[in-house]
Specification:
There is one protein chain. The protein has a six-stranded parallel beta sheet with strand order 14-13-10-16-15-17, with helices on both faces. It is flat. Strand 15, helix 14 and strand 16 form a beta-alpha-beta unit. Helix 9 packs parallel to helix 16. The protein is α/β, with parallel strands linked by helices and about 425 residues long. The chain starts with a strand and ends in a 5-residue tail after the last helix.
Amino acid sequence: MHFYILSIFPEFFQSPLSCGLLARAQDKGLIDFSFINPRDFAEDRHKTVDDRPYGGGPGMVMLLKPLSRAIETLPGTCRKILLSPKGKPFNQDMAKNLALEKEIAFICGRYEGIDARIENLYDLEPVSVGDFVLNGGEVAALCMIEAISRLVPGFMGKEESFTEESFVAGLLEYPHYTRPEVFQGKKVPDVLLSGNHKEIALWRRRKALEDTLNLRPELLDKVKLSDLDINFLKGLERVHLGRNLYLALVHYPVLNKNGQIGTTSLTNLDIHDIGRVSRTFGLGGYYICTPLKDQQQLAARLIKHWISGPGGKANPDRAKALETIVICSYLQDAVSDIAQKTGRQPKIIVTSARETGQLACDEVRELLGREPVLLVFGTGSGLSPEVMKKAHATLRPIAYLSDYNHLSVRSAASIYVDRILGDYFA
């Protein structure tokens, strides 16, 4: 495989490419490199490759002409990668795909970036190695070169070294140990010393599953799991973010269709469905807030029927779901109850289909790692301004780019909880 590297700092690559497995692969003729410096195509005696951006602003922008001339020296069949923060995220699957190529070029930007017209002039594939800022594309190119080269036949000393690595099977790799058997009181796991290869393979699979669950749970969605794997994962203990998340369904004060403040009646489906969501994701609790005594009594009768009455005997799973529900008069009662249970005042996050909130679901997840959060939903035509003003923040509407955002409250609660917790619930 041949790599072309377009960079104004070709010397950046000298040391990394001259040591370790990359150096050995070059010695064996598995991979080789050509460096193309846009400075060599500059028009002035100073070899200028950048200029001030149109429209003003900080920094400089790479000039089109030198870079264009450099790109035109590449073979027509060469696959051309533009290292860019806006590019498609680089991962193991992309590395596998690129490893099938015979020639790959990496265009390394510098300064504030490259004149945007370069992407219209040439067939370039923007690729990003992560959501962070680098000085230029050189580090990103090195990252991709190593990941791709490892997949070239003959690069690795033993092919099994590759097949058992992180991300190859979709999981993080299991932990490794070597001599000494005991170091500073820490012993190698007994199973690895047993000589029982079946037990060792099972231990390694389970450690890979455990580490993936704890560190990168989103990867499990892409992994084929056996019943044995799933039963093992269910038995693991881990940080339970869901316990810090509470839901409140407010029936007063809310708005009616005419924008007037009023009270709404309970809905049986809201009681059941949001209760089931709370139980499924292991939430701290679900509060139904209504000041009307007859509505409170109705809710209590319904819940009792499913917890300790005939409904509970016929459907124990429903009983478990409704056990999470607390009936109270006002939102402040829910806040006080959470504070008493947790010893901390919860962050009040409200939802609205009318107002464009700025808080994203992943920001709520971050809060859950530090403190309890009460996620508040309104009935009728939404929460009153009085309730909205008491909130610490408003969550961004589910379909905030759509001109139609009229989900039922139980649907909205389900979607929000899944977006906030996702794979992080126990």
